[in-house]
Q: What sequence folds into this?
């Protein structure tokens, strides 16, 4: 073979990975894959793809490879290499892992990227780009032919796994009683969790460059030693709950870190240790500390098994399932990690388990369970369902495959021994502990079963365990031949009494079974001792001893060496998935008609089952008893042995295969989990480099365990396409006692996103029997024919090309992927005019077929959907900056995916967002709220106009003649908000100053020309008089010298002589004599509009003249009213500048009415001000929408669009809100558009910040984060009692609520807060819309954008809310909160109730109890570093804490600051009146 000389080149020389000469390689073509290696060196082989060929190299017989590739594969330059053309199929990859960072990649983006990579050659560390370098990722790991390789070729069958280095991570630390126990090395389990696991995890994050957004929560469940609710004072009953045994408990959550990003997380460990040190006192003695004079039952910390494990997962799911809200563009992925000192066994509620499982699987959320306890000798995770029937006859269990389990082992080693115990030794009980446990166990026994003896929990118990075990695991005397005979008879006798018995069983138990189990392939039950079966894996004595203190242990049955046929009676179901035909053929049992016996896996046993034969029926392992006398089958319940779960197979479902494509295939061809190990000598641990690779030890994620993967040494189980193993995430990896589970560091460091592909689709018979079918067709050409004709006649530049049929077809697939569907890998049907895709999510399947110009969508949804279930959960929460645990609540429920209106969304795609198919809330479209704020004291109105002009609408100006005019009396009031230090005199700037409206536009890419005529010497020009008439004014507008500025927009369909209404008013003030105020200019423009001299640019002559950014045009021969453009308001964002509020200044006589309107003495005058306030906040909820070009640079490979929702009315003293809405967009391209807006906002002199939909996270909102809570800042009104008069005593009582509200607003403005509009779906907005007798809740945002403030007002007809007394104001309405009622989160009026409960905290709340006046303070959780405006007000975390501290001191009247503020207001009013 010919040898070529190898040289290296840099990227700046050529972007090509390999440079070849067509003369040296005449047989090589573009896109060929070549293998390069040194003939005398083993392992240095690399595969590269040829993208271009040079005609001639400088040196003959030479190839050039990029320098980084040469270094990675340890190639030697100037040495000889062999170059051969490879067959891509021989180097095909099974799976590829791609990592990315600081980006948001949607699932549709991943699918498009995967399609783009088909046929390309990859190598470890290769950087990939997509959408014109907008999407960036890197190759992390590759697998081919069962081994990890360094390079290969992607084919259509290659599975692409996306892993994110910047995910949203929730770390839950379970503070159960075991945290204060010692492990085998003498360390507390808390020390093992924090100093060990978390320390290593944070170190790996830092080493791998992971920058996750992390929330750390400590949680615990406290049981109370009492039998009745009467023992609790009424003040502490708000959060008490009662479990199925009748025991009272409370759940406590302490948020240590909330949505933080750090490069080094080591600084958090001391904070966690401090919380641990104070945990017992702060949680166990919480009520006693707050009520020292009351007798409160003693609290006991629960063990890990009885903790609130599923509740914490659901709390994170409440956040994760709203991923389309408040979309962040610098993170992708969601991960919940629960760190527990237990061993992976939990006692759970069945309904909550079903909800949790469905939500985790449907939402594609990664859920990791990390146990710092010793790994048991049985299979885990293991969930034991609550025995709500209080019967010892049935204890149901489940092995959840949707939890990724890890066991952390300390790196410590004992010098004198290498033995590692896997069973926790029982503690030595002293006399005092024995008495306490006896008392506790006696209490529990009275609630559960009287048959359990308390004495058996003691070490010296007379309970005969050996006899008990012998009875449980006694062997039957039946023979294997009888089992085979039974199987043959059940195969042929379909019409005998067997089937009738089966049908009777199915009818009698069907309803109950469906209500109890949502997915029967995961549950199983054990029998009871009286029937010779183990009552539970957790023995009765152990259950009692751990009921309040310790985790349960699992009894280990002695397994005799017997034939597998008898293993069912010993605790496992006999593995007989097939029956034999008499002719020798085989048939799967689940294909028989007898599979109507959908038996529950695990049920109550019976004495007759001991000597009976067992067999697996269908996919669900169950026990059936055959009675030879009656020749009928009696149903029993199988005992699944967790010590040998590999013998149990269950029916394969789409849920089970949802995550399997993230696992690589091992050498035996089955999927493996890389953190599962078999114990082997460390010297045998090797990492195969693969056929084309190099040694990859340095590229793999490190592991804490030594050994080899279990798949390499274990017994691979052949995969049946309809059956899967019960245990494990893959369902293909067999559990053995020698299997050691380590820590899945890869999942915890770079979490995987939900795979975009799966491989399960039900068979034809299942589709007919178990599913309902719906079908509809879309013909894009017919749908878009009308709009095409209309736009074709108009021939406007705003015409948007409709999507072609193939584009619609691909977009329908993209949208389903975005909503959590997965593409089912099946042989695609490609014909000349047909193409088919199958997709699934849960039990919902879609088939999309493109044939000719018709797209057919066929949907399969379950005939018997899961029953709806809503779980109301109450808990106590303490977040950062909170001083105590407050009551909160949340609802857990699974979404009904079958109710999603895909027909509506498909037509929305087909019509490119036509108004006939607008986006609705149920479509779960992506959105982001943006708020525009002023920077310091600036002419906010002019800067807002410039922002809308250049950024939102992207207009171009020509003939712009703008001359400075002398300062005139503006109708807008001064802005009172800034971020200066409170209580210091602040200068204010008028909103219209003696400045040019447009300054340098920076890098807007817009031609904004300023043609100022002359200098100051040539300032004198002829001004038009009002008396000259409207026609003369129109001519002056058209004049080339001193005329009005006209514009041409981002599209060319604007009429000639189009202008902005705000600029027209400014021009009239400058160029027309007799016009001195804005009101006079507006009236003159309205007069010209009535005279049909001007008209709205849409052609609609019914639109009145509106002051702000509204487009009007002069009526000419080419533009006449009446020809209305239907799509005009969809292409332009028009905002009105409201001035009605400031007109109230003429009514008031105060010197500064804005700041002291709460002191207006005249009742009529004050009522007018109050009504203006109410109307003002109602108008702030008015929104309009227009289309938004999301791909302004044209980088995408598809047509993309979005919508912009914006406030239609702007108040100069408030913020302005914009909302991005989209479904057909690439994440990084939206991020680029936002960065473009942010840049332009800074150039325009405004501050652009993202804001959450529900900044205060009130629990009655369905969008709220349950782990967030606002901070209540009380207002000390009693300090404002002066000269023997109480607060507001001299004013009419019916005006007290309004005056208090205005007083609180003045304080908010004093600290630099501006009014902002709440999300229309938030509780505060619903209060304003539904409870009309209440004043609107006022929501404010700080000028820095970092803080929100909420003022809640009371009803107008409740005069005694602000009572003139030295004490705090009284509340007499008992409907706010009942003493023992459970609040309904759907009632909007409960916002006030929640505030009351939240702020009262430790104080008694009853009827006629006081209500505290104050503010709700909430941080802006979406404001990251990239949104910081260097030219605007800076407020980092430290400054924000200082602002909160200063605000608290002011409201508490520290140093008489609040009192002085009130006195200053009274003095100003007195001086102005005199």
A:
């Amino acid at each position: 073979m010919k040898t070529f000389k190898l040289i290296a080149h840099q990227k700046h020389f050529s972007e090509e990975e390999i440079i070849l000469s067509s003369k040296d390689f005449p047989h090589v073509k573009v896109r060929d894959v070549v293998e390069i290696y040194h003939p005398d060196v083993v392992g240095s082989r690399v595969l590269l793809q040829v993208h271009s060929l040079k005609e001639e190299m400088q040196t003959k017989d030479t190839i050039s490879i990029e320098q980084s590739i040469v270094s990675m594969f340890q190639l030697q330059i100037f040495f000889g290499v062999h170059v051969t053309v490879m067959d891509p199929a021989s180097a095909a990859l099974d799976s590829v892992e791609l990592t990315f960072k600081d980006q948001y990649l949607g699932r549709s983006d991943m699918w498009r990227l995967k399609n783009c990579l088909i046929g390309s050659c990859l190598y470890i560390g290769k950087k990939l780009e997509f959408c014109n370098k907008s999407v960036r990722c890197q190759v992390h790991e590759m697998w081919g032919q069962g081994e990890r390789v360094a390079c290969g070729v992607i084919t259509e069958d290659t599975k692409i796994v996306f892993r994110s280095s910047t995910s949203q991570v929730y770390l839950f630390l379970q503070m159960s009683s075991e945290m204060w126990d010692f492990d085998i090395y003498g360390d507390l389990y808390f020390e093992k969790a924090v100093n060990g696991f978390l320390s290593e995890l944070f170190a790996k994050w830092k080493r791998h460059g992971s920058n996750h957004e992390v929330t750390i929560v400590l949680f615990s469940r406290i049981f109370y030693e009492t039998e009745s609710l009467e023992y609790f004072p009424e003040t502490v009953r708000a959060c008490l709950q009662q479990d199925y045994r009748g025991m009272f408990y409370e759940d406590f959550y302490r948020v240590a870190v909330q949505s933080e990003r750090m490069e080094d997380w080591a600084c958090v460990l001391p904070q966690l240790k401090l919380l641990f040190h104070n945990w017992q006192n702060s949680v166990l003695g919480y009520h006693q500390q707050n009520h020292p004079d009351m007798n409160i039952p003693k609290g006991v910390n629960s063990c890990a098994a009885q903790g609130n494990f599923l509740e914490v997962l659901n709390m994170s799911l409440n956040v994760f399932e709203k991923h389309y809200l408040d979309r962040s563009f610098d993170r992708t992925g969601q991960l919940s990690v629960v760190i527990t000192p237990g061993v992976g066994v939990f006692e759970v509620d069945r309904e909550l388990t079903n909800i949790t499982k469905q939500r985790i699987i449907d939402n594609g959320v990664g859920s990791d369970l990390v146990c710092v306890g010793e790994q048991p000798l049985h299979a885990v995770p293991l969930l034991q369902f609550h025995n709500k029937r209080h019967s010892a006859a049935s204890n149901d269990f489940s092995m959840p495959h949707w939890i990724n389990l890890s066991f952390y082992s300390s790196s410590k080693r004992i010098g004198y021994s290498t033995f590692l115990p896997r069973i926790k030794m029982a503690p030595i009980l002293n006399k005092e502990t024995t008495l306490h446990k006896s008392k506790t166990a006696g209490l529990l026994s009275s609630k559960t079963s009287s048959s359990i003896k308390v004495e058996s929990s003691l070490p010296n118990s007379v309970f005969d365990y050996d006899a008990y075990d012998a009875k449980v695991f006694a062997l039957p005397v039946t023979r294997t031949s009888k089992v085979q005979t039974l199987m043959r008879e059940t195969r042929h006798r379909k019409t005998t009494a067997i089937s009738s018995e089966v049908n009777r069983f199915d009818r009698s138990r069907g309803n109950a079974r469906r209500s109890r189990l949502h997915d029967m392939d995961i549950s199983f039950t054990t029998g009871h001792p009286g029937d010779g079966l183990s009552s539970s894996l957790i023995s009765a004595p152990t259950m009692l001893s751990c009921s309040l203190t310790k985790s349960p242990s699992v009894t280990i049955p002695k397994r005799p060496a017997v034939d597998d046929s008898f293993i069912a009676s010993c605790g496992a179901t006999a593995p007989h998935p097939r029956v034999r035909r008499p002719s020798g053929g085989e048939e799967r049992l689940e294909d028989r008609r007898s599979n109507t016996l959908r038996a529950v896996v695990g049920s109550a046993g019976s004495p007759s089952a001991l000597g009976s034969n067992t067999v697996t029926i269908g996919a669900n392992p169950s026990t059936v008893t055959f009675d030879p006398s009656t020749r009928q089958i009696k149903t029993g319940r199988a005992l699944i042995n967790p010590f040998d779960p590999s013998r149990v197979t269950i029916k394969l479902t789409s849920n089970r295969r949802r995550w399997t494509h993230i696992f690589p295939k091992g050498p035996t061809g089955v999927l493996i989990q890389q953190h599962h190990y078999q114990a082997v000598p460390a010297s045998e641990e090797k990492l195969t480099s693969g056929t084309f690779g190099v040694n990859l030890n340095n590229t793999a994620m490190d592991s804490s365990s030594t050994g080899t993967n279990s798949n390499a040494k274990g017994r691979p189980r052949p995969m049946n396409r309809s059956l899967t193993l019960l245990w494990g995430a893959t369902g293909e990896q067999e559990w053995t006692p020698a299997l050691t589970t380590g820590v899945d560091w890869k999942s915890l460091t770079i979490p995987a996103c939900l795979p975009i592909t799966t491989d399960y689709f039900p068979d034809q018979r299942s589709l007919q029997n178990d599913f309902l079918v719906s079908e509809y067709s879309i013909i894009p050409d017919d749908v878009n024919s009308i709009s095409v004709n209309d736009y074709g006649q108009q021939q406007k530049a705003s015409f948007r090309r409709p999507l072609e049929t193939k584009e619609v077809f691909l977009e329908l697939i993209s949208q389903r992927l975005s909503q959590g569907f997965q593409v089912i890998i099946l042989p695609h049907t490609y014909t000349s005019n047909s193409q088919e895709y199958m997709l699934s999510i849960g039990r919902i399947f879609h088939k999309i077929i493109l044939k000719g110009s018709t797209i057919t969508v066929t949907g399969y949804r379950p005939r018997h959907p899961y029953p709806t279930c809503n779980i109301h959960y109450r808990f106590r929460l303490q977040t950062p900056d909170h001083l105590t645990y407050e009551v909160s609540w949340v609802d857990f429920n699974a979404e009904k995916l079958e109710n999603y209106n895909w027909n509506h969304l498909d037509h929305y795609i087909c019509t490119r967002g036509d108004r006939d198919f607008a986006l609705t809330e149920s479509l779960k479209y992506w959105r982001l709220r943006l708020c525009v704020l002023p920077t310091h004291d600036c002419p906010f109105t002019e800067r807002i106009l410039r922002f809308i002009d250049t950024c939102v609408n992207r207009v171009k100006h020509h003939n712009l003649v703008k001359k400075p005019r002398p300062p005139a009396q503006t109708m807008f009031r001064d802005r009172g908000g800034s971020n200066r230090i409170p209580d210091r005199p602040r200068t204010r700037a008028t909103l219209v100053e003696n400045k040019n409206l447009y300054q340098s536009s920076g890098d807007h890419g817009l031609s904004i020309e300023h043609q100022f005529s002359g200098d100051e010497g040539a300032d004198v020009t002829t001004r038009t008089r009002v008396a000259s008439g409207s026609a003369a004014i129109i001519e002056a507008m058209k004049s080339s010298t001193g005329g009005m500025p006209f514009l041409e927009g981002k599209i060319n369909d604007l009429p000639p002589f189009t202008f902005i209404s705000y600029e027209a008013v400014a021009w009239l003030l400058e160029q027309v004599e007799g016009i001195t105020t804005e009101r006079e200019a507006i009236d003159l423009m309205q007069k010209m509009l009535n005279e049909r001299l001007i008209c709205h640019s849409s052609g609609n002559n019914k639109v009145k003249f509106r002051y702000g950014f509204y487009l009007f045009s002069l009526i000419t021969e080419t533009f006449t009213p009446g020809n209305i453009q239907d799509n005009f308001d969809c292409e332009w964002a028009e905002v009105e500048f409201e001035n009605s509020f400031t007109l109230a200044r003429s009514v008031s006589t105060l010197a500064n009415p804005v700041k002291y309107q709460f002191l207006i003495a005249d009742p009529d005058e004050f009522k007018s001000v109050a009504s203006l306030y109410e109307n003002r906040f109602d108008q702030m909820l008015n929104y309009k929408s227009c289309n938004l070009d999301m791909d302004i640079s044209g980088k995408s490979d598809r047509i993309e669009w979005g919508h912009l929702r914006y406030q239609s009315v702007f108040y100069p003293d408030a913020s302005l809100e914009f909302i991005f809405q989209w479904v057909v967009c690439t994440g990084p391209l939206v991020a680029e558009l936002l960065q473009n807006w942010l840049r332009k906002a800074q150039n325009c002199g405004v501050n652009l910040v993202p804001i959450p939909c529900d900044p205060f996270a009130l629990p009655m909102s369905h969008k709220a984060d349950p782990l967030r809570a606002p901070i209540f800042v009380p207002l000390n009104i009693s300090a404002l009692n002066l000269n023997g008069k109480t607060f507001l005593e001299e004013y009419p009582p019916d005006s007290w609520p309004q005056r208090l509200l205005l007083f609180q607003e003045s304080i908010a403005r004093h600290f630099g807060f501006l009014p902002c509009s709440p999300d229309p779906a938030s509780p505060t907005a619903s209060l304003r819309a539904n409870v009309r007798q209440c004043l609107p809740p006022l929501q404010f945002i700080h000028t820095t954008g970092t803080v929100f403030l909420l003022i809640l007002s009371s009803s107008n007809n409740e005069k005694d809310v602000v009572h003139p007394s030295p004490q705090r104001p009284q509340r007499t309405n008992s409907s706010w909160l009942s003493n023992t009622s459970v609040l309904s989160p759907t009632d909007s009026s409960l916002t006030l109730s929640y505030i009351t409960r939240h702020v009262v905290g430790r104080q008694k709340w009853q009827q006629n109890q006081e209500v505290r006046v104050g503010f709700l303070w909430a941080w802006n959780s979406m404001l990251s570093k990239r949104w910081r405006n260097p030219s605007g007000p800076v407020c980092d975390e430290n400054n924000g804490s200082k602002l909160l501290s200063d605000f608290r001191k002011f409201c508490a009247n520290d140093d008489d600051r609040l009192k002085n503020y009130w006195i200053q207001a009274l003095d100003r009013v007195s001086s102005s009146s005199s």
User: Anything to note?
Assistant: Residues 189-208 form the longest helix (20 residues).
